Fold this sequence. Notes:
heterodimer; A: alpha/beta; 11 helices; globular; B: 4 helices
Amino acid sequence: MSSREIFALRDYLGPELKGRTISDARQVWSLTNILEQTCLAGRLGALSGRSVLLAAADQLISAIAMTEIDGVARCMLLCPPDLNADHVNDLIEDAEIDAVVTDQPARWADAGVDLVVADRTPARSAAKSTTEHATDWLMLTSGTSGVPKIVRHTLEGLTGAIAADGPARGAAPVWATFYDIRRYGGLQIFLRAVIGGGSMVLTEPGEPIADHVARLKAREVTHISGTPSHWRKLLMSGSASDFSPRYVRLSGEIADQAVLDGLSRAFPAASIGHAYASTEAGVGFAVNDGLEGFPATMVGVNRDGVEMKVEDGSLRIRSTRTAHAYVGRNATALTDGDGFVDTGDMIELRGDRYYFVGRRGGVINIGGLKVHPEEIETVINRHAEVRMSRARSRRSPITGSIVVADVILADGCDVSRSDDVRNKILADCRASLASHKVPAMIKFVSSLDITAAGKLARHDA
Amino acid sequence: MSVALRIVSVMQQIAKDQQITLPPLNDDVRLHETGFDSLAFAILVARLEDDLGIDPFTISEDAEFPLTVGDFIKAYENVFA
């Protein structure tokens, strides 16, 4: 990398590192000579200084386009594949988008902005592209209702945690993630692959999990990340045997002891870490001691440029890795007066560790009392017979609401034992939780919905 | 199992879970004498909705809340009648 101040993804993609690839289920691109290739049909120059919406259905195209556009456009808004079409016009206005890069030109024909059509077939780029600007990276929050908020990051902030961690030891890593790389959690992994000199294996929409895992094995994936819900789904699928990554990472939801223990049994040779990150707050920290929660000593000090405090029960983070601002006509302040982002994640000190108890906005109301569903799920999930659970409120004409838990039994747990398991779980809940948090009903189900962002779907939050 | 028997059996199950001592049940026992609190009734209505597929207290806007065990059972039987 040269010593100039502005750096871009292309600076990490020199020809000196051989054998690097990025792939999905259909195609493998070489990352080693990627600078000589383009997926933009020679139209990168048309994006110079523009505000670009990267709206490709295809994740592989998006990855290649990011490496081309970074350092050329003024800003680049990453559009996740499940973006609600009703929100597109608002986003275009809020981010002052004047060009769209897409593999679906028909869909954008009426958007009133310049189109650059991207394609999976690599073409030889006519001229060597150079870095002109520090491109702003715009990302969408993964909120479940309303128009998503746009947050502005810089590549420097996005890669702050990667720089702090230093290069992976041993052979160049092959990264994979269950996330889409247009979301914060997935983008972190893509950037780790690019910056750390490694390779990357992408998800393929609709691919059966067994086929996905077969691909992870065939591509010799060494480092892999996903949400606890992604991991529980993988453990449930029975496909994990003889897949042996070196590093398993969880983020995006509360990693409880049950899922951490489940992963260390499934991947005895791997180091297993859970990371705290959000689109707004950036990467806060990673916990690698195999235990849920995080040491209380991490709060109140500056570690690798990240400071944390607890106020009104929620975790607040100030660092160079947080987003810089919300973007748009109705943008509010992203930080408080001291520069801290309120994560909205509620934490509780027990002994010498902090534990995540749930989202501030995710409480369910039970007879006037506020309950974090995650707190109940943690108690249920610690039973060996349980793979996954969801606590929710069920409206009742008499009391308002009661707590109901939907539970997926672990493999090898016979349905005929469900009465015993129910009684065992309920006894534990009665012993561990306040009485209004004890599920009034436990239903055994065969699956639970996961959102496009990889999180357990909560309809009543 | 008849609707009435089904309801009594679910009540007994909930009483056990919630550590409520039920008096001998018959149609004339008033609901407040059963020892069930509002949470126990909420659970009862929710479980019966899963078992029987109906919740007579939300089907009809003007449903009166029953006073006796007999009225409670009748609210379910009327839906099936």
